[in-house]
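Lab notebook, page 48
Experiment: co-folding of the full assembly
Goal: obtain a model of how the components sit together before planning crosslinking
Operator: M.T.
Materials (sequences as entered):
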Amino acid sequence: MADTAPKSFPAPLARCLGELEKLQGIGHKSALRILYGLLARGPEAFNSLAESLQAVPLLVERCPECRAFREAGQPCPLCQDERRDRSALCVVESASDLSLIEATGEFRGLYHVLGGLLSPSKGVRPEDLGLDELPARLKARAVTEVILATPPTAEGEATASYVASLISAPGVRVSRIGFGIPVGSDLQYSDSQTLSRALTGRRDYR
Amino acid sequence: MADTAPKSFPAPLARCLGELEKLQGIGHKSALRILYGLLARGPEAFNSLAESLQAVPLLVERCPECRAFREAGQPCPLCQDERRDRSALCVVESASDLSLIEATGEFRGLYHVLGGLLSPSKGVRPEDLGLDELPARLKARAVTEVILATPPTAEGEATASYVASLISAPGVRVSRIGFGIPVGSDLQYSDSQTLSRALTGRRDYR
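Observation: model returned without errors.
Model output:
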């Protein structure tokens, strides 16, 4: 099938198809399948999806402190949760990475969601990632450990390095998440850079 | 990751995630990826997708004759196209199947889009598929060939058989699309029912 809307397609369907094709991970065929699925379900399917989409920009905002998403006007469920460990702060690239870390259950501290990575070429500066306010926040919250959980890419490493440089207070531990062979995987399938990180990041066994 | 919205998710995001998960072929992880992709693109991404979705039930309708989708109030681009062959009519399950047939360029006649398949157990009756009006339409259009292009499933075959039974006029050819080994495939990969259809559907080679 050609990668354009079928010729007999009414304009509103073609426009909707184009919007669906912009979604992350959705190509032409998936967008067509989604559209025909909605058509088969009827008008209500279009309307309820549209309403749930429109509600997001109206009812969701970033917490001004940790920059994670919260219901507009409501207390942040992370920053305001008294049961969380306020001495540890984890720096992540995105709300999506925050969710992945929450799902492990290994971390019960606070977060700083960058919403991107430093990139001079893309014009992303420290203040775009809320990093101008981070030192004051660490001091106010009396944070004693900052975990750098940005990805092991060039931009992720540069961002981690920049965040580390902001933290000068004595007694604040700065750590980086571990990189190496994925659990359940085989050394055979790892590239040499990953294996190299696994070796430099080795830990005492006993 | 658990197959529910992350715990710290604001309710409007969780609702939107739930709607995205209802889409054809979209599971929990794809829905999350789509949602985070939209969040990264900002409010405009949510609104333009929502608007294009809401336009569909308002601006698209089924042609009362062929039952394909057309712009509301506009002439049907298939039924009203004078260049199409009005003596041939192809019966398809869905608008999606119609698009696939159009994309081959092999058929330039008219269509009847069933919008489903006969199924007593699901309560789908002939009149739900526009089949009560089909004989009059064939007569009015002086159709001389009806191609049954429903899928080779139990319901598809039952529907094809029912449509064939409606066509009693002498001089109207009723044909069924061919089933057999997919082009470029190998007999090794075909199941025995497909191979059986390929044998019974054999054609003279010279």
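Interpretation: Chain B is about 40% helix and 15% strand.
Next step: discuss with group before ordering constructs.
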